[in-house]
User: Fold these one by one.
Assistant:
Number 1:
Amino acid sequence: MRKVKDKEERQEKLNARKKRHYEQCAATFNKQSIDFSDDDFSDEVASTSEIDCLPVSSTEYKSNIIDTSQTQLTVTNKTRGRLEIMTAKLSSALDRCKISDRDAVHIIIAVAEALKVEVSDLVVNRSSIKRYREQSRMVLANNIRKKFSTSELNAIVLHWDGKLLLDLTGKQTVDRLPIVITNNDSEQLLGVPKLLQGTSKAQAEAIYQHLSEWGLMDHVKAICFDTTATNTD
C-alpha cells in the first residue's frame, strides 16, 4: 500500500509540473518524435529533465503543434530581398581588386552583418552581382567611347600585341589582344578582347571590329607590332 501511495503522489507531482510548463515548451517539440501514450509519463522511465516541458494531454499538444506550424509557415514564405546593394562605384572597386562574383557575395554579406544591416532585405547572390557588373562595364565602355572624339585626329598609329593572361573567371590562361591607338602625345585603349584562338585571322577580325566600333577605319596611317608569326602573316 505504501508503494502504491508513493507512486500516486509522484504521479500527481508529475502532472502538476507538466501543466505548469507545457505552454512554454510545447512549441519546441517535434510531433513525429513524441508518443502521447501515458506510459511515457511514468516516473520509472522519464527523468525530470525529460518531462519538465511535456504538455498535459495530447489534445492540448496537438493544438500547440498547429500554432507552431503556422508560425514556421510565415517564416518560410518571407519575401526575397529587394534592396539593391550594387552600385557603379562598388562594381568598379570589385573589378579593380579582381574579386570574383562568388567572392563578392561573401564579402558583401560579411560587411552588411558587421554594419548591422538585415541581409535578408538585400539582393545578394552571384547571378545578380554578375549581371550588374556586366551592365556596369558596358555603360562605362559606352561613355568612354562617346567622349572620344575623332574630329581632332590627324594620323593615328595602331598598336597591338597578343598576350597570354589569366582569365577573369578562372585560373586558366587565355589569349588576350590589347589594341591601342596613339596620336601625337595622346593614346587610347580600344579594348583587350579575349580570343578563342591566337591565330593571325582571329587577331585581324578583332582589330577590324574595334576600329569599326570606334569609327577609326579611315584614320589609321601606321601600324606597330612585334615580329611574331601571327602578327606578320
Note: The two ends are 111 Å apart (CA to CA).
Number 2:
Amino acid sequence: MTEVMSDKDLLDALDFGHPGLESVGEAMSAGDLGAAKQRLIAYFRNRKDAGTEAVSPEPNDQPEAFSERGEQLCRELAARDWLSVADPEATPER
C-alpha cells in the first residue's frame, strides 16, 4: 500500500534554514498551514538557484553512471535471442 504524506508532514520535513524558505518556517511556527503552502509555492515559482538546465546527460557527463560491467551486461542482453525458448514446457501460458 502506498503511504501518502500529508501537507503538514511534508512542510515539517523541510529545512527552513535553507535560503528562501525562512518565511515558510515562520508560517509553520505560527500554525498557519495555508500560508506556509502558499509561501512554498511562491518559493518554487520564484527561485533563481534551481541549478542546471534540464538536459539529457551523456555517459561522459555522468562518469559514475558508466561501468564496463554495465556495458557488458547491456551487450549480452542486446545479443540475446528473446524469442527462443530452451524448454517450451517451462514457459507458462500467457
Note: The chain has four helices and no strands.
Number 3:
Amino acid sequence: MSTLKRKAASQAGSDAKKPRQNGSITSFFGAPKPAAAAASSSTGTTTSSSAPATKFDKEKWVKSLTDEQRTLLRLEIDTLHESWLVHLKDEITTKEFLDLKRFLDRETAAGKKWFPPKEDVYSWSRHTPFNTVKVVILGQDPYHNHNQAHGLAFSVRPPTPAPPSLKNMYTCLKNDYPTFEPPPNRGGLLTPWADRGVLMLNTCLTVRAHEAGSHANRGWERFTQRVIDLVAAKRTRGVVFMAWGTPAGKRVTKVDAKRHLVLKAVHPSPLSAARGYFTCGHFRLANEWLATRYGGREGMIDWALVEGGSIFEKEEKKEEGDGDEKVVGEKEMGKGKKGKEAAVVTTEKVKKGLKKGGVADVENVAPEAEE
C-alpha cells in the first residue's frame, strides 16, 4: 500500500465516529413503501440493483492502463473508494479527465499550493460509499485557506470554526429541529452526516490556495456532473438532492423528479440566506421523504453533530404539534430590505410545491428569492 493510500485511509478513520442513526417522524408523504432492499440499521447501506453485476477486479483494471495513465491516476487508484471507482473508471480515463490531472501536476511542479490535501480530494467517496447515498448536498469550490477544505462540501476540521455559510446551515437546521445543537467550540466537522449517507460534494474538487475559482473549468465540473448523474441513474430507491443557489440548481435539472426529491433554495451564504434559506425546511423535508422510501426512522438522516445527541431522541421528548415557535435567525433576517418577509417560507408552502412533482423550489415561493 502506498504512503498516500495509508494516509488517506488513516484520515478517513480519524475524522469522526459513526453515531447511531435513528429517528421517528410523521411523514407528510404517506406511509412507508415496502422496502425493495434491506436497509442496514446503522450505516444506511442498502443492497439493491445499483450494485455491479459482476465483481470489479481492480488489480486487473490497473494493469490494463498505460504507464502514463497509471502515473496520472495514482490518486484515484489509491484514494477513490472502489464502490465509486467501478462506476467512474471509464470517465477518469477520458482525455478530458487526464488533461485535468496534467493541469494539477503542472500546478504542483510550479510550486502552486492547492487544496484540499491530495489524500482528501476523494474523502467524500470513502465517507459515503456509493451504495449508502441517500442525500446529496452540493457545494461549489473547496475552501481556499489553510486547514479548511478536507474533501467534504461546507465541512471544516477542528480547530477551524464553522464558516458563515455553515453557521447559516445550522440556523436552518435549528428551525427544522429545535433540539439540534451545533458542534462544541464553534466546530464545523460534518463527517457524521457523510458517514450516515449524505454525499457532501463540491462541483469543483480542488482550488489554488487563496484564489477562489482558480481551478474552475479545468475538468472537475464534468467529473462531478458524472457523479451526480450516476447517483440519479443508479440509486433507484430514491435520493434527496439539496441544491442551494443558482449554480447548484443548474446541476440537477436532469434529475428524474418522479424517482428522486430535488430541494432548491438560495445559497446559505450571508449574501443570500435571508431571502428564504433559513426557513426552507429542507432538512426535515428530506427526512419525511426518506421515511417513505427507506422505512421510518431507519431510513432517515440523524442530523445531530454532537455525540450522543440524536435529534430524534430529543424530538420524541417534545410534544407533537407544538407548532408556532419563534424562528431562529429572525433578527439577522430582518436586517436587510424585505429580509424577514422573504425569509418566512413555511414548510407547508414548500410541500404544496412537492405535490406538483418531486421538486421543491424555495426560490419560487419566497418573494425576492432570486440571487
Note: The longest strand covers residues 135-139.
